[in-house]
Write a structure and sequence with these properties.
With 306 residues, the chain is α/β, with parallel strands linked by helices. The chain is built from 16 helices and 9 strands.
Length: 306
């Protein structure tokens, strides 16, 4: 997609997301518009599978910008996220210089710690200029990383720069579009949140979830889509270890379509619960009679709405 200008209003932001197939509410569009307008990172918190990561992907696609993704995990450090030196190439350079005998120690030190021996990882890549405009930097599932790495990000998020001891400070010519996501498996420090605009991405209501499903899976029969959404909405009201997100709703609708279902029956629900629920205790709690009760309640709600 060709590069586009940053939206100038909340309505344009809603349209931008819609063009990428993302059905957003006005609250999300508002904070996203402000993030883009003010050049501030956007901190998205919410349960897994509600569409946080998708926002960054859609932004990159619709704005025509490069998407740079940093997937966080326990033990993530600067060498994996920001930069590291190409030590084998540096050693070759040192050996060649020693063999030639024509360079002093200070000159050699400056050369081997120059940018041509620097391996740029996602954060440093995001600070580089790009002809298409500032890239979208997705820092995904920050809660999986250690607090030490979280502290390192403060300089990046506040000043759009990183400091490399051997070279100095590298600053972005313009701020990258930064989206930070977390599933809230642990609390993120206030110092990092203060540098961002915050938004809680909640499960969508039934109307928006149905719109999402029909946007993402236009081939699904409308009646089946409505039943799927009504059932999942009711399922989220149960006491479950992990409630199904929008991603699971889409997966379930796809699975039922592959099974040539145009409506849901209790037996099919029990047989396919593994698409919606990822823990055996949750499946055991719902399968059988409770699945039938939830399906009956979903159909009653649909009949009342018609």
């Amino acid at each position: 997609m060709a590069p586009r200008e940053i939206p100038t209003s909340i309505e344009e932001t809603l349209s931008l997301l819609s063009d990428g197939g993302y059905v957003a509410d006005r609250a999300l569009a508002t904070v996203l518009f402000l993030s883009l307008k003010l050049g501030r990172p956007l901190f998205l918190e919410g349960e897994a599978g509600v569409g946080k990561t998708e926002i960054a992907k859609v932004l990159a696609e619709t704005l025509g910008r490069k998407l740079i993704r940093l997937q966080c995990y326990e033990g993530l450090d600067v060498s994996s996220a920001v930069y590291e030196w190409n030590y084998p190439a540096q050693m070759v350079e040192i050996r060649l210089a020693e063999a030639a005998g024509d360079r002093d120690r200070d000159s050699l030190s400056k050369d081997v710690f120059s940018e041509r021996f620097l391996i740029k990882r996602p954060i440093l890549q995001a600070l580089e200029p790009d002809v298409a405009g500032a890239p979208v930097l997705l820092i995904d599932e920050l809660d999986r990383a250690d607090e030490a790495f979280e502290a390192f990000l403060l300089e990046v998020l506040a000043d759009n720069q990183v400091t490399i001891p051997e070279i100095g400070t590298i600053r972005a010519p313009w701020p990258p579009i930064v989206v930070v996501t977390t599933n809230r498996t642990r609390e993120i420090h206030d110092a990092l949140k203060r540098r961002c605009l915050y938004h809680w991405v909640d499960y969508p209501d039934a109307a928006r979830e149905l719109a999402i499903l029909e946007t993402k899976l236009p081939g699904v029969h409308h009646r089946l889509a409505a039943e799927v959404v009504a059932f999942v909405q009711g399922l989220r009201g149960e006491d479950l270890f992990k409630k199904p997100g929008v991603a699971e709703t889409l997966d379930w609708a796809s699975a039922l379509t592959e099974l040539d279902q145009v409506a849901i029956d209790p037996e099919t629900v029990s047989d396919t619960l593994g698409v919606l629920l990822k823990y055996q205790d949750d499946i055991a709690k719902i399968e059988g009679s409770r699945a039938k009760e939830l399906l009956d309640e979903a159909r009653a709600q649909m009949a009342a709405a018609e």
